[in-house]
Amino acid sequence: MKRKLIAAVGVVGMMVGVAACGNGGDDKPKSDASGGAKEITVWVMDGSAPKAWIEQVNKEFSAKHPGVTVKVEEQKWTGIQEKVTTALSENTPPDVIELGNTQTAGYAVTGGLADLTKDKAQLGADAWQKSMLASAEVDGKLYSAPWYAANRVVVYDKKAYEKAGVTPPKTRDEWIAGLEKLKASDPSAQPIYLPGQSWYILAGFIWDEGGDLAVKDGGKWKGQLATPQAAAAMDFYKKLQSYSTAPKDKDEATPQQSTDIIPKGGVSSWIGLGWEAGGAEKALKDAGKDADFGYFPIPGKTADKTGTVFLGGSNLAVAERSKNKELAKEWLALATGKDQMTKYATEVKGALLPNQVGANFTPAAGSFAEAMAKAGLNGKITPVTAGWANVETEPNPIKEFMTKVLKGEDAAKAGAEADKEIANRINK
Amino acid sequence: MSTTTAPNEPAQQLRTRRPLRPATVAKNLGALLLALVFVFPVYWMFSSALKPNSEILTKDPVFVFTPTLDNFTKATGVENFWTYVTNSLVVTVGAVLLALLVALAASFAIARMKFKGRKGLVLGVMMAQMAPWEVMVIAMYMIMRDAEMLNSLGVLTAIYFVMVLPFTIWTLRGFIAAVPVTLEEAAQIDGCTRGQAFRKVIFPLLAPGLMSTSLFGFITAWNEFAMVLILNKDKTAQTLPLWLTQFKTAFGNDWGATMAASSIFAIPVLVIFIFLQRKAVGGMTAGAVKG
Amino acid sequence: MTVHSQGATTSAPQDAPHQSAGRPKAQSPAAGPRPTPPRGGRKQLPSGWLPYLLVLPAVASMALLLLYPLIKNVILSFQDINKIEFIQRKYPFGGFANYTQLIGDSNFWTVVVRSFLFTFANVALIMVIGSLIGILLNRLGKWMRLVLSMALVMAWAMPIVASVQVFYWLFDEQFGVMNWVMRTLGFSGYEQHNWFETGLSTLTIVTLLVVWGSIPFVALNMYAGLTTVGAELYEAARMDGANGWQTFWKVVFPNLKPFFLVTTFLEVIWVFKAFTQVYAMNKGGPDRASEILPVFAYVEGQSQAHYGLAAAISVLTILILLVVMSFYFRLILKQEEEQ
């Protein structure tokens, strides 16, 4: 209701804005912003922004900009791409939007995101981690501010490992040997819980083999799942998966491994993100059980290097059609600045890596964050190209590929089918 | 379908004539089994909603449990819950009433008057019933977006109204056509205007038709998901179907809350059905209820 | 989206009048004396205008909110609109490209065939089982009839959005009650059986849901229709020595033909457009194997952001539906002429 009033008030502003539509409202003076009641809308994903943190960000923001309120709307992951796409086409889109790092490039090329290249100084871009910056830029232009990154580690039940006499492995072989021991020590438990479609984990294995998900070949991208590297990676995935009774055609979110599966017990280890580990711990405690988790990076092929992991994360972008671009940029600068990022990292206890080293949280020994930071050194992201977002949309061909191979189909054949679909989508 | 005086006799006669006991037993058993099959999903929804979470995610279902309202508290404790409720009610009731009003006029003309283009109109109404609204959402979205009419309950009401309209016209037309013209003429001879004749003669006879079409309209609008999802991103302009699906999150599918929300969502429809259906579905169940 | 379980009856019109013919008579005298030129008389519009005035609101609103979006949809189907164009609001003309792409796409034809099979299977099951239950209702004692019809009403009244959630939950791989039922009945392999493993199994469950939700409409209306078939007709059939089956074909069916026609028509269009049930159940998966036309259009359009292509799919869907239904329209128009 309130928003509609504001929309009505904004009509006048819009009429002015229409003429300036193409080049955006950058030149709108700040005086405009400080006068009268204004609201900027921020879309964050479910689970990204701890309430306490974002509330104090907004408090600080409102203190700097009297009369401006920040409306934070939490979005569900399901159907988010459709929602963001339509939202960016609207006249009053959310002003700031959180985008997955693998999807940012896809939106950048649509013209739906504001070009932030000129605002680098204001945003403090120099301090950003280079590995995270990569996903925020397309062709040298900046379209978003990196926010956080995270990667997965193996979470294990210390008691089960102790009982089986297994210690955290350093190599894949040790890992498998440990799983064998776990199986022998408690045949009713799953040595590891691994659903068939955790494609981010598979991506790590493919990178370990020296392969990739897709490569650019003569101006065109093509899928790389029909390669021997992908087959070898899938082979290892299949071996790991054979220690789990998890569904072969689901990913880790259906059912949610952290809150639906782990709290039930009967799982000695699993691969997850920080918030998942936290969620599982909380659910176990709520159920009156104790949670004694240990963490280790996904082992590499040799002991000198941990397994390559997918460096997931999120960026924050400003919508090109935002009516309050300047305010949005200022909010962005505040939220992703060193001060607030330090608070952020502390708030999430290091489970998410902040966008700059200076904001890092020193994790406690033996914590999730410690293992994650170690594993994150060997992190990679999916191909940075506009078309990648299309590949990830459901039905995701990588997931279908995995399920097919796990069910016995030939990896080369399934890979060729997936590559065809990937090529189809990535070049759009 | 009929009516208050609807003949129950055939049923009764058939019944009394049936001497075969085993057949009777089989029939009743079959009916009982069918009743169970039809009711089970509804029962399971309510029972899952009332279970504590620890007894929902079990491999073997729990049938005996201490009911708790936790899930309902969680489902209704969501931000904007009452806004969703009000929005759903406003949009649904608005669309249904509007449809009844507009359809009454149109169906009266179609059923009772001769005019050029009448046949085309009938055909148009027939075809309009087939409109695949779900695949038109993008076109509708682009129209509303370009007209600056997103996030509007009024627009939503209007769309639902048009969704329900063809069926309403079609059904009411049948009811009006079934009222003998002589009745109307008699009323006019008695000094009624045509309008009065409509009000006093035809309208009362339409009650079952009005009931059944409003029931149809209510369910259509109450359930609608695809349009509101894309048109109204502003949470203050959203409706209950969107609320219903929000308990599946990155942190897990909260089945208890989802089932509680489904129950809350289904209850008004169930109640309306139980109240209205006897009239709406006409004499059909009058026989069943009164025997 | 249109709902499948509708709260309306269709066999109504035929017999509506008889019943309350008495009521209005009591009311009409209240109209008082007969001032032949009544109030409205003077101002009355030329009678030629009145029908147009009456249908105007309906026509106008349908033109604005149904016809216009449809036309917009057709225009879209000739444009090459993907994510970039959509966000930039550009509408480049693409000619028949979307259509030629579809017609040359074997996936599209698979989906078309699947849609027909799905619709046929569902409507057949709904009509046969629904009619049988209607007949059963007619033959039950009053208590059993009350129990069964209440159960039917419950299923009928369940909003689709809610019932999809419930069915999904019933068939959940890990905690679903159906796996337990199968285990209890002694079947092996249902420890963690995945009911949504293939497109066929997914559509089977969708079919269960659709049939479960639609039967009450057919059954209850069938029962209502049966009560209007005069007892003497059964009598006569019995005298002729007809058995139950013959009675059905000779007495019941001809009398309820309009009911069967209308109901089948409605079920066909409702099932053909069953978007929510299929999409919400498994998003058209696994591997797009449970997509029917509306879901195909949605996945191509919304998820893959090929808006022009999706519009072309929807236009073809409408055309297919029109062709399939054309015989029915002819029938209705014929009826109109006879009136």
From TrEMBL, chain A:
Domain of life per record: Bacteria
Xref: InterPro entries: SBP
GO cellular component, one term: ATP-binding cassette (ABC) transporter complex, substrate-binding subunit-containing
Gene Ontology MF term list: maltose binding
SUPFAM superfamilies: Periplasmic binding protein-like II
The name this protein goes by in its record: Sugar transporter
Keywords, sorted A to Z: Signal, Sugar transport, Transport
Lineage of producing organism: Bacteria, Bacillati, Actinomycetota, Actinomycetes, Kitasatosporales
GO BP: maltodextrin transmembrane transport; maltose transport
Keyword Signal: yes
PROSITE patterns membership: PROKAR_LIPOPROTEIN
Family: Belongs to the bacterial solute-binding protein 1 family.
Signal peptide: 1-20
Pfam family, one: SBP_bac_1
TrEMBL record, chain C:
Region annotation Disordered: where it falls in the sequence: 1-43
Pfam family, one: BPD_transp_1
SUPFAM superfamilies, A to Z: MetI-like
Localization in the cell: Cell membrane
Gene Ontology CC: one annotated term: plasma membrane
CDD domains: TM_PBP2 (cd06261)
Predominant place of localization: membrane
Residue span(s) of domain ABC transmembrane type-1: 112-328
Transmembrane residue ranges: 49-71, 116-137, 146-171, 200-220, 259-280, 307-329
Keywords, in A-Z order: Cell membrane, Membrane, Transmembrane, Transmembrane helix, Transport
Entry's family note: Belongs to the binding-protein-dependent transport system permease family.
Protein name, UniProt field: Sugar ABC transporter permease
Organism annotation: Streptomyces katrae
